[in-house]
Amino acid sequence: MSRRTSRKRQSTEQIELTIEAIGFEGIAIARHENIVHFVKKAVPGDVILAEVFSKKSNFAEARIKEIITPSPLRQVPICNHFGVCGGCSWQNLPIEEQRKWKKQHVADAFERIGKISIGELTETLASPRTLHYRNKMEFSFGASRWLTDDEMSSSEEEVHKNFALGLHIPGRFDKVLDVDNCYIAHELSGKILKKIREQALALGVSAYNARQHSGFLRNVILRNTTATNEIMVILLTSEPVTKADEQMIEWFEQEFPILFGELTTIIHAVNRTTSPVAVGEPRIIKGNGFITEKVLGVEFRITPFSFFQTNPWLLGQFLSSILHSANLASSENIWDLYCGTGSITLPASKFVSKSFGVELSDGSIEDAKANAARNKIANVEFFAEDLHKPSALRLLQSFPSPDVIIIDPPRAGVHQTLLSHILEVSAPRLVYVSCNPSTQARDCSLLAEKYEIQNVQPVDMFPHTYHVESIAQLTLRQK
Question: Least packed by Cβ within 10 Å: which of 216, 260, 280, 365?
Answer without folding.
Answer: 260
